[in-house]
Amino acid sequence: MCKTLKFPLLLVHGMGFRDRRRLNYWGRIPKALEEIGCQVYYGNQDGNGTIESNAAFLSERIQEIINETGAAKLNVIAHSKGGLDMRYAISSLEISPYIASLTTISTPHHGSLTVDKLIKLPQPVIRFIASCTDRWLKICGDQSPHTYAVIQAFTTQAAEEFNRRNPDDPSVYYQSYAFVMKHVWSDMLMLIPGAVVYFLEGPNDGLLTPEAAAWTNFRGIISGNSARGISHFDEVDLRRKRITHKQGEGVQDITEFYKEIVRDLCDKGF
Question: Whole-prediction pTM value?
C-alpha cells in the first residue's frame, strides 16, 4: 500500500463558510491527514461567491500553491458547493493541467428539487434574505458574496446547464461521495432543512440527497454505524469529535473516512 500522496492536497470548502485559522472549516481533518504525510492547503475562496468568481479565485490559488511547492499537480477534495467551484475551474478556466484528481463530498452536481420549490417563493423575500446574508458574509471576510445567484445555481435546470457547459476533463480523475442521516432528527442543527428535503425528495444528509450528489466514479452512500447517520456538518467535522463510539460496520470518525480517501488516491498513483 502506498504511504503518502504523490501530489499536495487542496481542501476546498462549501457555501456559507470561510477557511479560518482559529475556526477551521475542516475541524480535525487537516491534522489527521498531515499525520499520514499529506501536504494540506486550503482554497480560501469566498463563502458565498458565485461559482464563476470562486473558480477564478481558486485558479489563482492553485497556481500559487504550484509555485510555492514546485509540485506538478494537486489533488483536490471539495465539499458541497466547493465541488462546483472546482469543476468550473477545471473545465472552463484551463486549470486542468495542474489537477491530478477531484474528489467531491456531497456536491449538488444535479441541483436540488427542494431549491426548485423554494425558489418559487416571492422574489422580494428571497432577495431580502440573500442581501442580509451578503452583508454578514462581507463582515466575515467575503469579498464578493452573491447569495441570490448562488441559490439560483442550485436549481435542477441550472445544474443541467452547468453540467452541459462543464464536462469532465479526461486528464483529471473524478470521484464522488454522498451521505445520509438515518433520521431527520439525527442532527438537530440540520433538523428543519433535513425535514423539508426528506418530505420533498427523500433520505438526505440535511441538505442533499444521494441522487443530487452522485457524479463520475460514484463511490456510494456513506453512513455511520450508529442510528444517527452522517449529516452535512458531520462531513466536515463541525463538532470536532467522533460521530459514534459504537463498534461495527460504517464510519465512526469522519477523519478515518478522509484518511481512506487519501490511501485510495495514493494507491491509484496520485
Answer: 0.95
